[in-house]
Amino acid sequence: MAETVYKIIELVGTSTESWERAASAAIARASGSLRDLRVAEVSELDMTIENGSVATYRAKVKLSFKYEDAG
Q1: What 3 state SS string does 5-52 have?
Q2: Residue 11 domain-assigned?
Q3: Domain count across the chain
Q4: In this predicted structure, what is the pLDDT of residue 4?
């Protein structure tokens, strides 16, 4: 059985609606250029605040995908 290697990148998605939508935005963007996405882990949640109210929800996402050599 061959060994498999995965690469992990970290992205920050944003949304004006929710943390879930922020995380989904990061995954949607990554899926446009990466193949074989495997696991997404939300590692941090935060918000930006403007005039005393939440302006954007932000989700830091660690995303893994199957690593393939270019050769």
Answers
A1: CEEEEEEEEEECCCHHHHHHHHHHHHHCCCCCEEEEEEEEEEEEEECC
A2: yes
A3: 1
A4: 83
